[in-house]
Structure formats: structure tokens, C-alpha cells
Write a structure and sequence with these properties.
By secondary structure, the protein is an alpha/beta fold. It contains 14 helices and eight strands. The chain starts with 21 loop residues before the first helix and ends in an 11-residue tail after the last helix. The radius of gyration is 22 Å and the shape is globular. Helix content is 45%, strand content 12%.
Length: 316
């Protein structure tokens, strides 16, 4: 994909609404650099701005809309939909530099999340640290859980949190994941190679999926082989989208497998994309998995370096 940094456009006479501030546009361009302005990168760009300042100002949202040539309404609606984006209007005071998000899902509530939240609010200066509730963090087996910056504290209590805060432990925890070399040493990506070289057929894989009874786990239980057939019957171009969002209490299996064997997941995704003749593959990953986000990008770069995928097949 082409990468372009846009400069501020001329304001048309009589244009309504608040205009983009030159300094805001300059800051947005500085933060995003030569990143693509394609619409599918909107959420990624919002994350970059949020991480840089700790919130999303209206001035920066307007600048981002101008840079990406998008309506302000589209940018605002996207940012306001997700709990991790903090939108600050022109007349509002930005939040403190540090935010602690305490999971308020059923598992964490039963494990004492509300009491922990109140203890943190009592102990900490609200001008320096903000304590708020947040949706399920996919760590229900280690409740209660909180997120300090992008760092998760499992089986959290007041002392653990204060200790992490004292050393500014804000980044995602390190994850020991299976590398490309280790995965290939066990036969990894051989099936994908067979598919690409004609050793395996789409019809053969569809028959295998039908016999296995593989179904979606989103509630409907839709058979995977039928989904492949329906998608293949539609006119192209086609895209493959993987939903890695599991926000219901008690669901954290996806995070476990993504952390332990990301290449097993990526090979399955690539085979699915091959089977439906997709020209691109998108992975939707929830905000609560920043460590997985980091390792998946590293795993994808391994695939690119090994020429297993083209650089733009996985937009990152």
C-alpha cells in the first residue's frame, strides 16, 4: 500500500463547523509519520494518538479526519464506540496521565473487583491516577484483573498494584511464544505449502471440515465448510476477516492459543484465505490483548521475511 503524509488542505470560504487547527495537524502528522491513510487504518491511528497523549482531543480527531480525508462523524463514531479511547472535548479537562482499568465482568466481580476499585480510589491521588471500570479482559481464570496502562495485573490486589505503579510498569507483559523456526521444525506451514503447490485441493479440505463437524463458536454454530462454500460462490474480490474478540465472561481460550502458538493460528488463517481466494486477510483483535497484538505483528513480520506472505497481505 502506498504511504503518504498529507498537508493541511485549504479551507473553502463559507465552510461550516470547526476548522482543523494547523498545530493539531502538524502533531498528528508527526505521530503517524508516513503511515498509510487508507480507511482501514483508522483504528490503528486512533491507538497511536491515544498512546501518545493518553487521550483523544477533538482538535486531533478533526486533524486526523482531514489527513485521512474522512468525515469527522466517521472518526468520532469509531473512537466513541470503543471503551479504551478517551475522547476529550474542547471545553473538557484531559484525564490524568495514568489510568487503571478494573475489570467489572462477572468473574472479577465475584472475586472482589469492586472492593479493589474502591481501595485504589481511596489510596491514590485522583489528580494523578484515574481508576475506572472496564469490560472483560479475557483473564477470567485469574480474577480479579486490572490494567495499568497496557500492563495487566492478574489476581490483583492493592499491594501488587501499588508496586507496579511505583516502577511505572505500563507496558504489556512479555509472552513466550513459538517462533516460526520452532513451528516449522514440527511441520508447520507444510499444509499451506501443499495447498499452494497443488498437493491439497479446496474440495478435499471442505470435505475434511464437513466430516470433522467444525463450527463457529459465536453462538450460531454455523458449519465452517458451508461458510467456505458460500463465500467461494460470491463474486470477488474477497477478503478473509478473523474475529479475535472474546468479551464474554469465561472466554479466554483464543488468547491462550494466540499467546502459545501464533503461527498455528496464522497458518490456519492463510489456508482459509487461500480456500476462498481472498486477496487480503484482516485480524480483529480486542484492545484488552495488547501483548497478543505485539507478538502477532512480530510473527507476521517473520512470515514476510521468510516470503511466506506478501508484506501487505496482513494489514498491520
Amino acid at each position: 500500500m502506498s504511504q503518504t503524509t498529507l498537508t493541511r488542505k485549504k479551507t473553502r470560504s463559507g465552510q461550516k463547523g470547526r476548522m482543523t487547527q494547523p498545530d493539531a495537524l502538524e502533531l498528528v502528522n508527526q505521530i503517524l509519520g508516513n503511515a498509510s491513510n487508507a480507511r482501514e487504518f483508522l483504528i490503528e491511528h486512533l491507538h497511536a494518538l491515544q498512546d501518545h497523549q493518553g487521550y483523544l482531543s477533538f482538535a486531533n480527531l478533526r486533524a486526523l479526519a482531514e489527513r485521512m480525508n474522512l468525515p469527522m462523524a466517521a472518526v468520532y463514531e469509531t473512537a466513541s464506540f470503543y471503551a479504551h479511547f478517551d475522547i476529550v472535548r474542547d471545553d473538557e479537562t484531559p484525564p490524568p496521565a495514568v489510568t487503571i482499568r478494573v475489570c467489572d465482568s462477572l468473574s472479577c466481580q465475584l472475586a472482589g473487583a469492586e472492593a479493589l476499585s474502591q481501595a485504589l480510589k481511596t489510596e491514590l491521588d485522583p489528580q494523578a491516577v484515574r481508576v475506572i471500570h472496564a469490560p472483560c479482559m479475557g483473564r477470567c481464570d485469574k480474577a480479579p484483573v486490572l490494567e495499568l496502562g497496557h500492563h495487566h495485573i492478574e489476581q490483583a490486589d492493592l499491594s501488587k498494584t501499588l508496586a507496579a505503579l511505583s516502577v511505572e510498569m505500563f507496558e504489556p507483559e512479555q509472552v513466550d511464544w513459538q517462533s516460526l523456526a520452532d513451528y516449522q521444525s514440527l511441520g508447520g506451514y507444510q499444509l499451506l505449502q501443499d495447498c499452494r503447490e497443488g498437493g491439497e485441493s479446496v474440495d478435499g479440505l471442505i470435505a475434511m471440515l464437513e466430516k470433522a463437524g467444525l463450527r463457529g463458536l459465536g453462538g450460531a454454530g454455523f458449519p465452517t465448510f458451508k461458510k467456505w462454500q458460500f463465500v467461494r460462490a460470491e463474486a470477488g474480490p474477497r477478503y478473509c476477516v478473523i474475529n479475535a474478540d472474546e468479551g464474554e465472561p469465561g472466554t479466554f481460550k483464543d488468547r491462550y492459543y494466540l499467546e502459545k502458538s501464533p503461527h498455528q493460528f496464522l497458518e490456519g488463517a492463510l489456508i482459509s484465505a487461500w480456500a476462498v481466494d481472498a486477496i487480503g486477510l484482516y485480524i480483529y483483535l480486542r484492545d484488552e490483548y495488547p501483548g497478543v497484538n505485539k507478538l502477532l505483528k512480530a510473527a507476521i513480520h517473520e512470515l514476510e521475511d521468510a516470503n511466506i506472505v506478501e508484506p501487505d497481505f496482513y494489514p498491520t
